[in-house]
Amino acid sequence: MTGGKDGAVLDTDLLIDDPETRVIVCCGSGGVGKTTTAAALALRAAERGRQTVVLTIDPARRLAQALGLRELGNYPKQVQVEGFEPKGELWAMMLDMRRTFDDMVRAHAGPERAEQLLANPFYQTISTSFSGTQEYMAMEKLGQLAATGDWDLIIVDTPPSRSALDFLDAPTRLSSALDGRMIRLLTAPAKAGGWGLRKVVSAGFSMFAKAVSTILGGQLLADASAFMQAFDTMFGGFRERARKTAELLRSAGTAFLVVAAPEPDALREASYFVERLSDESMPLSGLVANRTHPVLARLPATDALAAADALERGEQSAPLATAVLRLHADRVALAEREKRLLARFTKAHPEVSVVRVPALPSDVHDLGGLREIGERLSGS
Ligand SMILES: Nc1ncnc2c1ncn2[C@@H]1O[C@H](COP(=O)(O)OP(=O)(O)OP(=O)(O)O)[C@@H](O)[C@H]1O
Ligand SMILES: [Mg+2]
After folding, report:
1. Handedness of CA 238, 145, 41, 98 (dihedral sign)
2. Which of 63, 364, 375, 376 has most ligand 1 atoms within 8 Å of its beta carbon, as the pocket-test mutant?
3. What are the C-alpha distances in Å from 249 to residues 134, 138, 254, 365?
4. pLDDT in the model for residue 180
5. What digits encode the pLDDT tens for the residues 54-108?
6. Which of 117, 247, 282, 356 would staple 277 via disulfide (CB 3.0–4.6 Å)?
7. Residues 147, 78, 67, CA angle at the centre, nearest 5°?
8. In this predicted model, what pLDDT tens digit does every residue of 133-174 receive, in sequence order?
9. From ligand 2's centre to the CA of 330, what distance in Å?
10. Does the pLDDT at position 11 exceed 90?
């Protein structure tokens, strides 16, 4: 795998061509280009001969359409569009968080219990709006895709969290919420003959339970209690799966790519994430600095500005040329700022290789755009 040295350039082709690479996870904070990177890498991997599946999360509608995904299928579909004849295969899917959760409940609880669980309002709240559910379900789906053995490369996009770390933290948070002390407090008495809640509250043993019941309302508390009782039998499987997926993420065939904009906040966030991956012994392949602004001409900014000034002072006015020169000077300043920021990142993390992907003139929503991003990702 591509272990960079002293800020080496990341070549994602080495990664996707390596048959040992089985899973690539694209992480990063919100809006940096995770979905685009995941789709572009998958397309390129398929064109270079691999049986690839990409698990996307909330792709922009036009990108989904370009991949032939019109609705949330929750199962991969082979991408078959005109003019696309990859050496390998490209399959794509959009994560349907609710259906993934439902399927998991069905797979673990018996049919009767499953229906009870699915109809429970508390379940409906947890499965759609609990923070961390989407991250958990993305991992669950990754586990499922890996278990089929149908693809030799799985590329995973991650949910649009504020922080890249959420992807690693959320599943644990969700498990502990479902598995935690509060839930046990709620369910244990209920098991002892349905008196539970009343006993709990009247015994006054827990201000906490009272507070919960005040905040959530009695009915929701009762739903929660019923839900947790039914869910109880699933916990073994639930935890076991989370553990297995975490193991997959730590395995040698998995590579993490951190996507970041060349901005101070995004790079700071990427730094935290790099450190966290290393603490967790999760294999990082490199940083994708997305939407950089390379300069198009070699003219230094000072020269461009001097020329613009001269033109303005000159006899013949040349407003267009002046504007272009000033624009160029701005662009040079921006490029230099980005270069400095990336150099600072590399100084702090010399072992992380970096690839710069320029901002394309428009959004990436077709195969041509994805191909172009894929090419840039290979460092060419
Ligand atoms: N290099 C690029 N050049 C031009 N447009 C880009 C580039 N990378 C991403 N985009 C565009 O930026 C937007 C956001 O990208 P994308 O959806 O991949 O980000 P994301 O990290 O997945 O966001 P979220 O956190 O919301 O899931 C999209 O419209 C995409 O087409
Ligand atoms: Mg996205």
Report:
1. negative
2. 364
3. 17, 12, 6, 29
4. 54
5. 999 989 889 999 998 877 678 999 999 888 999 999 999 999 888 888 888 887 7
6. 282
7. 120
8. 788 888 889 988 999 999 999 999 998 876 667 777 766 666
9. 30
10. yes
Residue 217: is its pLDDT beyond 70? no
Which residue has its alpha carbon closest to ligand 1 atom 4?
360
Amino acid occupying residue 197: L
Report which protein residue has its CA nearest ligand 1's atom 16.
33
In tens, the pLDDT along 317-350 reads 788 888 888 888 888 899 999 999 999 999 999 9
Residue whose CA is at the smallest distance from ligand 1 atom 18: 33
Protein residues with CB under 6 Å of any ligand 1 atom: 28, 30-36, 58, 60, 160, 290-291, 357, 359-360, 363-365, 373
174: buried, middle or exposed (CB in 10 Å: 19+, 13-18, 0-12)? Answer: buried
The per-residue pLDDT for 73 is 74
Residues 157 and 55 sit within 8 Å (Cβ to Cβ): yes
d(CA 188, CA 229): 8
The H-assigned helical ranges of 18-132 are 34-47, 61-66, 97-108, 111-119, 121-129
Better-predicted residue by pLDDT, 202 or 9: 9
Q: Which two tokens stand for residue 357?
A: 């992907």
Going from the Cα of 157 to the center of ligand 2, the distance in angstroms, rounded, reads: 7
> In testing the pocket of ligand 1, which one of 27, 95, 363 has its CB within 8 Å of the most ligand atoms?
363
Q: How far apart are the first and last CA of the chain?
A: 18
